[in-house]
C-alpha cells in the first residue's frame, strides 16, 4: 500500500527489484507480476494539507478497504506499521489481521529520545552526561547549568527534541565562548 500514486516506471522498477531473487531450485522468480499488488487509497487526495498517516487515509477509503479484504481473504496477512498509530489498530480490526507492533501508547513512550534514555538507564547502560523528560524552559536552564557545572570537560552540548525524528529537532551549543571564567584546554 503506497501513500503516493506510483507511475508505471516505478511499478516496473519494484517488480524487477523483487523479481531478482532466485528460487531454491535455482530458477529465476517471474511471479512478481501476479504476487505483488500496488494499492493506493482511493481517498488519497481527499485531505489536502493534512498530514494523515496511511492507515487513517485507508479507513476513509471504502473501495480500497473492500479491495484489500478481497486480496487477503483466506491468506495469512498482517500489518507492519512504521510508527505505530491508533488507526493501525483500528485498521487491524477492520481487516481482521494482526499488527506486528506494540500498543501505540507504549510505542510512543519508548520511541522518544527520553524514552530511549529511560531504557538505557533501566538497563544500566553507560551514556554521556545528560538529562531527559524536560518539559519547561526553566527546567532546561536549571538542568543544563547543573550538567555544565558537573562536567566541565564537556565543551559541546547537544539538544534533541523528543517529538522529532530523522535528525530534525537536534541542535548543539559550544559553551567555550560563553564561559570565559573557565580555562578551556
Quick rundown:
The chain is mainly alpha-helical and 185 residues long.
- Number of β-strand runs: 2
Percentage of residues in DSSP E strands: 5-15%
Helix and strand content put the structural class at mainly alpha
Write the element-wise H/E pattern from the N-terminal end onward.
Answer: HHHHHHHHEE
- Write out the strand line-up for the largest beta sheet, numbering strands in chain order: 1-2
Categorize the overall geometry. elongated
Largest sheet: 2 strands, antiparallel
Whole-number mean pLDDT: 84
Helix content: 25-40%
**In angstroms, what separates the terminal alpha carbons?**
55 Å
Low-confidence stretches: none
Tally of helical runs: 8
What value does the Rg take, in angstroms?
24 Å
Explain what you see.
The protein is mainly alpha-helical and 185 residues long. The protein has a two-stranded antiparallel sheet. 5% of the residues are buried. The mean pLDDT is 84.
How is the topology of this model organized?
Blueprint lengths: L7 H11 L13 H4 L18 H6 L2 H11 L13 H10 L8 H7 L2 H10 L14 H14 L5 E5 L9 E5 L11
